[in-house]
Amino acid sequence: MVDLSREPVAVAHSAPLSFSQLLLTFFESLHPGCALGPLFTISSTHRLQGRIDVEALNGAVADVTLRHEVIRTVIHRREGMPSQCVLEPEGHRFSVTDLSGKGGYSEGAAEEFIRTIELGERPWTEPPLLWVFLGRFSPDDAVLVLFMHHSASDAWSLEVVMQDLGAFYRARLSGADPMLPPVLQYGQYAARQQAEPLTRATKRALDYWQRQLDGVRPARIPFMRRRGPQDAGHRSVFRFEVPAALADAVTHVSEDLQVTPFVLLLSAYKVCLRKITGVDDIVVPTLTFGRDVPETENMVGFFVNALLLRTELSEEMTHRQAVEQVQETFLDAYSHDLPVLQVIDESLDLGLLLADEEFFLMPFQVVVIEGAGRYRLSDDCLAERLQRSDSFVDGMAVPLDGLWTMEWGKSLTGSVIYDPSLLDEAGIDRLVSGFTDALTQLSRDPGQALDAWRTGSPAQ
Fold it and tell me: Does a structural domain hold residue 62?
């Protein structure tokens, strides 16, 4: 999905943009080329074990491309007003690579294949926006890679694509109907969303956010560089793994404190920021699925929303009290969830915060891989998600200053995407070390006071 100034050809129909898409255009204005450029992609990788019918899989990719119109959609500006244009079906993207010369499947060989795809120059912004790559080590062992432009997809969408791909694949093998329910198209959802009137609940939520964000100011990271006149769009990534013993402790302490691991990890991140910035009033955005109605569960599209979580962590607090406040803040914010673009429109202080050069916009999120990410493509073929330590690529784009992701599957790993013009690797290493220290202290003794330890003063 790309922002076009020229009229696209073979348009089936048009629709307004969803709030999530409008949010992308907002960030595109702040970071040109990031939200709608070719590097803002999302992917998932799976190992396929069992007999693979390549012709049936190819047909299933075509079926998925036809089922979800957003895969065939572009963003077009006409007289300054953006809209989404759904194109007529014209093919699909599926390729097969012979990897039999690699001596069989190995994690290294699979990673090499995936990296080749990620680093390749392809027209990622040109529909159809679903790219499927099959690397075959043998007739019954392969790697399947799904790539989509992020403006047309999110993590949930990739799960939907895999489920639909399996249904169509089995139908192709058996000649039966895939038995998939009707799906609401993304453009229809966007039109419905934009037509909704302002309700009392929405007004109450807007009032909540105005109160919550009143007087908010950035907590400056002392080792952050001054911004240049324009974002170059380049992003780097810093990867790390939480020791297994600490990951186990996070699970146990979360249960003891009756909070989710997300709340505990976010609390450690906020405590880390407080120590490094020397500011008690901390605002951290977190990303949400943004799927607010049941019909969206089997849809493909960009639904991501954000919650601005503001907490006041005073020196008198214990780690337990900090966790309790983060939990309360998150639950309150979630109960008043609105498209963040509506909040930006209504909150002058939030607009000033986002425009402040000292505010480092880096949302924090936790991704949990449930059920080992397994799918039964057919009676003869099992797909299992590969949890990669290199799930982000240097040089990729995100329409933010950074993105902090904790991924919980077989292990607890972290990936920090960041703008190297604002923070260097040493600065990110300080943040990660501070986060790990805070997580260790919180897990070891929740009753300890926040100021009972130090992760380095702002002067360092």
Answer: yes
Residue 375 inside a domain? The answer is no
> Is residue 83 within 8 Å of residue 75, measured between CB atoms?
yes
Total domains present in the chain: 2
Q: What are the residue ranges of helices labelled H in 295-358?
A: 319-335, 340-346, 348-355
Report the C-alpha dihedral over residues 228, 229, 231, 234, rounded to 10 degrees. Answer: -50
Which of 162, 188, 214 is the last residue in one of the domains? 188
pLDDT, one tens digit per residue, over 153-169 is 998 999 999 999 999 99
363 CA to centre of own chain: 10
Q: Residue 345 contacts by C-beta under 8 Å, 6 or more apart in sequence?
A: none
CA distances from 258 to 229, 267, 288, 323, 326 (A): 46, 14, 21, 10, 13
Residues 282 and 315 in one domain: yes
User: Letter for the amino acid at 239?
Assistant: R
Mean pLDDT of 47-72: 96
Do residue 132 and residue 240 come from a single domain? no
pTM of the model: 0.86
CA gap 314, 207 in Å, rounded: 26
**Structure tokens given for 296:** 């969206």
Tokens representing residue 333 in the block: 């914010």
What is the sign of the dihedral through the CA atoms of 432, 437, 443 and 446? Answer: negative
Instruction: Assess if residue 167 is contained within a domain.
Output: yes
Give 390-407 pLDDT, tens digit per residue. 555 554 567 778 899 998
CA distance linking residue 356 with residue 3, whole number of Å: 26
The CATH number assigned to the domain holding 146 equals 3.30.559.10
**Does 111 share its domain with 14?**
yes
